[in-house]
Amino acid sequence: MMGLFLLQIIFWLSGFALVYTYLFYPLLLRWLTRNKALETEQFREETELPQVSILMAVHNEEAVIQEKLDSLFQQNYPADKLRIFIGSDNSSDQTNAIISGFEQDRFPLHFIPFHSRQGKPGVINQLAQLASEQQAFGPDHVFIITDASVMLSAQVVRELVKHFKHPQLAIVDAQMVHTGMTELDISAAENNYISWEGQLKYYESILWKKMIGPFGGCYALRSDFFVPVPDNFLVDDFYITLEAFERGGLAIKEPKAICYEPVGHELQEEFRRKARISAGNLQNMFRFPHLWFPPVGLPNFPFFSHKILRWLGPIWLILLLLCSGILSGNLFYATLFAILCATYVGIPLLDELLQSWKINASLLRKVRYFLMMNLALLAGYIRYVKGIKSNVWQPPKRQ
């Protein structure tokens, strides 16, 4: 009898964990931030603006690198205060040739073609060291770390760095706008999720200036908060954020720093990417347990509520199914077990069938996306347990 009661407790706690992290926590932040806006100390004069070094690691990005370079060199920022450092991670296509042949006379461009794979964090580590060694700017030196697939509007650098007048501000994230969505694949669901995620980060910025991690495609980092990322860590931007929190740093999101990136369309490609991120999330979770447990104070409360409970989503989903199945002698739990089985298996199959008929069912697609995302998290668990030896990456397919 006690065993059945314990199973019921586990069932309802698992359900609450999912509902809390995906619904109650966002609603709480939305309510707490009503009629509030982000407030920070800002540079007002042109002469106050800090020195900026843009750091970018690339690997086989010939499809996007020309457009990316154009967006970098169109930045509305003082020419004597911005430098660009690009490291090519043993690219085998035309990436190196395009960068080497790029002509401009506005900002200094430093290009380093690596002849063996370093991994993105390894390239960024070396670019950051090079940027710092060339001239010691001190606390008024800002790194902007960006990906080749992310196109910057002309005001991005200015909008990101204007906040760094506050000496403890470590990170400012950009606003990602996705392009190329369609209702016939997962791209619309991916865009909805990431847009919602971005809104949560903005709420955290308003309330505590403890945004729980940038998106990574484009963000600014005060150079004296930079720490080299370990060779086997997969999610470098989150590692850097947590290290900044360790030193009392603050992190915010700037909605006016608008960047553009094509959203993922292929389910298999997104699954691979999210499984990799999941393994990296676990690395950070176990590296910094004191920053999320106990889940009180800052950044523990938002970190636990926003990330930890969500990263554990596959466990909650499995426990819901197992507990309801074991309790299925009770009609109520038997009904829930049947509903869960139909949801986990039936909805993805039905959506796949309708998709093959060119029929779009938005709700089914969103449920399928949610289940796929949690299955990818589970695949990340397996990769983490097996051990991660390298952070070398392959860029996703470009539309």
Keywords:
single chain; 399 residues; alpha/beta; eight-stranded mixed β-sheet; 12 helices; 15% strand; globular
Describe this structure in words.
By secondary structure, the protein is an alpha/beta fold. The chain contains 12 helices and 8 strands. The protein has helices spanning 2-32, 65-73, 95-100, 120-134, 156-161, 187-208, 236-246, 267-287, 300-311, 313-326, 331-356, 362-386; strands spanning 51-58, 82-89, 109-114, 141-146, 151-152, 169-179, 218-222, 250-262. Strands 3-2-1-4-7-6-8-5 form an 8-stranded mixed sheet, sandwiched between helices. The model has no long low-confidence stretch (mean pLDDT 92).
Briefly summarize what is shown.
This protein is α/β, with parallel strands linked by helices.
Helix content: 40-55%
The count of β-strands is 8
Global outline:
globular
- Main sheet summary: 8 strands, mixed
> Strand sequence of the main sheet, in spatial order?
3-2-1-4-7-6-8-5
What structural category characterises the helix and strand content? alpha/beta
Q: From the alpha-carbon coordinates, what is the Rg to the nearest angstrom?
A: 22 Å
Q: Please, how many helices?
A: 12
Strand content: 5-15%
**Which sequence of SSEs, written as H and E, runs from N to C?**
HEHEHEHEEHEHEHEHHHHH
Whole-number mean pLDDT: 92
Give the topology.
Layout: H1 2-32, E1 51-58, H2 65-73, E2 82-89, H3 95-100, E3 109-114, H4 120-134, E4 141-146, E5 151-152, H5 156-161, E6 169-179, H6 187-208, E7 218-222, H7 236-246, E8 250-262, H8 267-287, H9 300-311, H10 313-326, H11 331-356, H12 362-386
Parallel strand pairs: 1-2, 1-4, 2-3, 6-8
Antiparallel strand pairs: 4-7, 5-8, 6-7
Helix pairs in contact: 1-6, 1-9, 1-10, 8-12, 10-11, 11-12
